[in-house]
Design brief:
Elements lengths: L2 E12 L2 E12 L3 E5 L6 H8 L7 E6 L6 H4 L2 E4 L11 H11 L5 H10 L13 H13 L5 E5 L7 H14 L5 E5 L3 H5 L4 E6 L2 E7 H8 L3 H8 L3
Parallel strand pairs: 3-7, 3-8, 5-6, 6-7
Antiparallel strand pairs: 1-2, 1-4, 8-9
Bound molecules: adenosine-5'-triphosphate.
Keywords: ATP-binding, Nucleotide-binding, Transport
Organism: Romboutsia lituseburensis DSM 797
Protein name: ABC-2 type transport system ATP-binding protein
């Protein structure tokens, strides 16, 4: 199977602190993959490296065969941990902004998700609740026709009742055949939608595999396995 992400012997330190340690990882095309790990395990650092926002000290990252660059930004739709959007913008301005900025942005798809989640297009990001802001940003990112979607903690602020509805809305709209990498702590919520999971601990991969196979082999849910593996 072809891989959308290939990582070889990757190392990254901040000052003297090693955060990614000789990591090797392949992510196959067409899968929904959960990137799971405790606080400080290196998830956001890895994602920033994949998006070219940080540069590794050594090793290689290939996205569809090329190093992170302007070329890979065209095929990667990224939801960062913290927003980069101007909060004085209204939802309808953001939709236009994305339409102008990304050739692959499908404004009709975005509008239909905005409608189904009952979001007011005239509201400014600034006055929105944290959860609604997250919904808007997720809709923008998922309305691109990308080959790889990378979501860093996408729905942490969304109330539990709305989470599964949002995940379903997103999944029924995202570009089939693409890969979705979701870094999250909300394991029980995403467990049912993921094909594969990756456990990261102290900057290295400690487990990677198919969700059903892992559940069968270990005789427990991914959520229980995570709690056991990373018990404080
Ligand atoms: N800019 C930075 N300068 C120095 N250290 C940093 C910087 N960014 C992150 N770190 C450190 O690198 C380690 C990994 O951080 P990272 O944000 O990648 O973890 P994470 O798995 O995403 O954590 P969380 O689940 O809490 O978001 C942490 O120990 C963090 O303190």
């Amino acid at each position: 199977m072809e891989n959308i992400v290939e990582i070889k012997d990757l190392n990254k330190s901040y000052a003297k602190k090693e955060v990614i340690k000789n990591m090797n990882l392949n992510i196959p095309k067409g899968k929904i993959v959960g990137l799971l790990g405790p606080n400080g395990s290196g998830k956001s650092t890895l994602i920033k490296l994949m998006n070219g926002l940080l540069h590794q000290d050594s090793g290689e990252i290939l996205i569809n065969g090329i190093s992170p660059s302007i070329e890979t930004k065209k095929i990667v739709s990224y939801l960062p941990e913290r927003t980069y959007l101007n909060d004085w913008m209204k939802v309808k301005d953001l939709l236009e902004f994305f339409k102008d900025f990304y050739e692959d942005f499908d404004i009709n798809k975005a509008n239909s998700m905005i409608d189904s989640l009952k979001i007011d297009v005239n509201e400014k990001l600034k006055t929105m609740s944290k959860g609604t802001k997250e919904k808007v940003q997720l809709i923008l990112v998922m309305s691109r026709k990308a080959s790889l979607y990378i979501l860093d903690e996408p729905i942490g602020g969304v109330d539990p009742a709305a989470r599964s509805y949002i995940l379903k809305t997103i999944l029924s709209n995202y570009c089939q055949g693409s890969t979705l990498l979701i870094a999250t702590h909300l394991i029980s919520e995403i467990e049912s939608i993921c094909d594969d999971v990756i456990f990261i601990s102290k900057g290295d991969i400690v487990l990677q595999g198919n969700v059903d196979e892992i559940r069968e082999e270990k005789g427990k849910s991914i959520d229980s396995l995570f709690r056991e593996e990373f018990r404080c």
